[in-house]
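Appendix B, record 7
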Amino acid sequence: MIEDDPLCGMPPHWYVAFFNDEQRYWWSPLCREGFRHVAAFGYCAEQAVWLLYDVAMTRTLIRALTPSQMDAWVARLPANRRILAWEPTQEPDQPAWRLGFWCTPAITHLIGARSRALRPEALYRDLLAQGARPSFESEQA
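Structure tokens (predicted):
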């Protein structure tokens, strides 16, 4: 399997960023302020790059960023962002079924979390309950 390949550069853990998206959609009022979008990023030491995974409305963005580019991306996030460090304790033992393909289910699937969340704020609560911890605190509002 590809995830067993040491050359694939899988980050050992992920950072999950919750923030408001710049766009307003019909469902925006259904999401709590500060939790209208979620993206994930992780550092691959072997390649010395950050991988950024962001499911947008028009496409899925996967970017390989240098450390300075990643610093700039984090600095551009809204002031009310919340970032959690997530390190899975074990590989999921069951298939990760998901409903839909928008930011929340896509990030849940990427990081291997156990969650049925459909909105970012519910994923945030689930990750905290499973041991995720706040990160980048000195930069958060």
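Remarks on this record: The mean pLDDT is 83. The helical segments are 67-76, 103-111, 120-129.
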